[in-house]
Specification:
- Keywords: DNA integration, DNA-binding, Endonuclease, Hydrolase, Metal-binding, Nuclease, Nucleotidyltransferase, RNA-directed DNA polymerase, Transferase.
- This protein has 118 residues and is α+β, with helices and mostly antiparallel strands.
- The chain folds into 2 domains: 50 residues, no CATH class; 59 residues, Integrase, C-terminal domain superfamily, retroviral (SH3 type barrels, Roll).
- It has 4 helices and 5 strands, in the order H-H-H-E-E-E-E-E-H.
- The radius of gyration is 24 Å and the shape is elongated.
């Protein structure tokens, strides 16, 4: 398949270096190559296939405001990844550093409701 794409692109990539030709061919294969059976490109199918990283629930979390250092919440966790998390606040989604996000524990939930634990 790579040889076929390189051959098809040979007339438009005459001035490119071999490295640039290979990059363009790989981009075409990974991002622009769709079939009639599956209209999504291979890269989309690859990154959408892992269900273990998708949130099935949006757990409540407590956050520390990076500006005031106050603990706020609980807020609903929308998504997270690579050092950042997105939480749903009343004013809209808020992206904050992941180190400022902590899961809401049962102890904190009971304290907020006024129930004392052992």
């Amino acid at each position: 398949m790579l040889k076929q794409v390189l051959a098809r692109q040979s007339s438009t990539t005459v001035w490119m270096s071999p490295h640039e030709k290979l990059c363009k061919a790989m981009f075409t294969i990974n991002f622009l190559n769709c079939s009639f059976e599956n209209m999504s490109p291979p890269v989309v199918r690859h990154f959408n296939s892992g269900n273990q990283f998708k949130l099935s629930q949006h757990p409540p979390v407590m956050i520390r405001d990076p500006e005031t250092w106050e603990t706020k919440g609980p807020y609903e966790l929308v998504t997270w990844g690579r050092g950042y998390a997105c939480v749903a606040t009343p004013s809209g989604p808020w992206w904050i550093p992941q180190k400022s996000v902590k899961p809401l524990s049962l102890k904190i939930q009971l304290q907020q409701k006024g129930i004392r634990g052992k």
